[in-house]
Design goal:
The chain is an alpha/beta fold. It has one domain: 3-Layer(aba) Sandwich (Rossmann fold). Helix content is about 25%, strand content about 25%. A hairpin with a 5-residue loop joins strand 10 and strand 11. The longest helix has 15 residues. The structure holds glutamine. It comes from Oceanobacillus halophilus.
Length: about 230
């Protein structure tokens, strides 16, 4: 499986993402600078965390307007997987690929520590290796992780089972404790916590391995006939 890790000016979790899929999972992966992008030959797109364009305006707001996002949208429309983590999640909401918005944390401070999450939906192509309601531990590292959407959107997210991860102890004020959501079609996942920083014991948790494993396994089952 071939992953593209999109690098914007100011991305800083791109190497972590690359390390997770290339070195830990052993798949093909490339760092793709946002300007030189032809995403046609990649099976999955990873939008990493960081401070793209210095978080000017809002986290992800400027990156969302870049040309590469047109290709990410086309890739998503083909049903191929897209995972946005932290700043990547912000880019996905700002570009309208996911509903809602990420606001400043309720305490107005940058937070960086481990959090427990509940797997609410284990039927997505990213989460089939988890048990439903499994408790997993991922690091968070954000200043704008306070997920917000209006009541109607929240109702739809619940009805369509689009809430994939919630916080056990909501650290940032997110509505309905939301830590990660998926699009209605089930192939674009955005989440504030970092699964790519939880893939080896030395990182304090390897709960993120199951997420990448599921992506790879589900892709093989769909696209590789002899898998
Ligand atoms: N680690 C990150 O991706 C940080 C995201 C964003 N810059 C924020 O502070 O909210």
């Amino acid at each position: 499986m071939k992953f593209a890790v999109i690098v914007f000016p100011g991305s800083n979790c791109d190497r972590d993402m690359y390390h997770a899929v290339k070195e830990v999972m052993g798949e093909e992966a490339e760092l793709v600078w946002y300007e030189n992008s032809n995403l046609e030959n990649y099976d999955a797109i990873l939008l990493p965390g960081g401070f793209s364009y210095g978080d000017y305006l809002r986290g992800g707001a400027v990156a969302a307007t870049s040309d590469v996002m047109k290709q990410v949208r086309e890739h998503a429309q083909k049903g191929k997987p897209v995972l946005g983590v932290c700043n990547g999640f912000q880019v996905l909401t700002e570009s309208g690929l996911l509903p809602g918005a990420l606001m400043r944390n309720k305490n107005l401070s940058f937070m960086c520590h481990q959090e427990y999450l509940v797997v609410e939906n284990n039927e997505t192509l990213f989460t089939t290796d988890y048990e439903k309601e499994e408790l997993v531990r991922f690091p968070i590292a954000h200043g704008e992780g306070n997920y917000f959407c209006d009541e109607e959107t929240l109702k739809k997210l619940k009805e369509n089972n689009q809430i994939v991860f919630t916080y056990e102890n909501n650290p940032n004020g997110s509505v309905a404790d939301i830590a990660g959501i998926i699009n209605k079609e089930g192939n674009v996942l955005g989440m504030m916590p970092h699964p790519e920083r939880a893939v080896e014991a030395i990182m304090g948790s390897y709960d993120g391995v199951k997420l990448f494993k599921a992506m790879i396994k589900n892709w093989r089952q769909t696209y590789v006939t002899n898998a």
